[in-house]
Amino acid sequence: MLQDSLPGPELFIVGLTVSDAVRPKVTAILDGEQGLGIDECALVSRRLARRIEEAYGEEASYTLEVTSPGADQPLTDPRQYVRHVGRTLSLKLADGTEKTGTLEAVEAGGIQLAETVKEKNKKKTLPAVLLPFETIQEAKVVISFK
């Protein structure tokens, strides 16, 4: 099981894909409450490669990639939100609406978002409201170079 390979409970799997090719490519996308560094990726890669070799033999032909989600990738796991408290998120909700605002807090069932709206050419921040995770279709961190 891959979870056994993760160095500590702070890392978790965000995505796992296996391409359908002559030489399959296994891509494991991991994240952590404090982010994910290259050392953790290397450790998981070595452990995962060892497990694949144990299960399929040393002659198995595959490519293995262990990585973290890029800065432009959507947040897909509720645990990913925690380290982004205080940052600006862009959300697409299940009802088709879009919201942008500051992530104020993360709760068991959702996030507290202080939405930023334009009002007469001025930006106004509304009081934070709870948005349940199941209503969030896509969430991305807004990258700012200030």
Automatic annotation (TrEMBL):
GO biological process, one term: ribosomal small subunit assembly
Major localization listed first in the record, in broad terms: cytoplasm
InterPro entries: Ribosome_maturation_RimP (IPR003728), RimP_C (IPR028998), RimP_C_sf (IPR036847), RimP_N (IPR028989), RimP_N_sf (IPR035956)
Name of this protein: Ribosome maturation factor RimP
Cellular component per GO, a single term: cytosol
UniProt-annotated location(s): Cytoplasm
Gene this protein is translated from: rimP
Top-level taxon in the UniProt lineage: Bacteria
Reported function: Required for maturation of 30S ribosomal subunits.
Pfam family name, one: DUF150_C
Signal peptide: none
Domain named Ribosome maturation factor RimP C-terminal: residues: 75-145
Domain Ribosome maturation factor RimP N-terminal: residue ranges: 23-72
ATP-binding in keyword set: no
UniProt entry keywords in alphabetical sequence: Cytoplasm, Ribosome biogenesis
Organism: Hymenobacter lutimineralis
Membership in a protein family: Belongs to the RimP family.
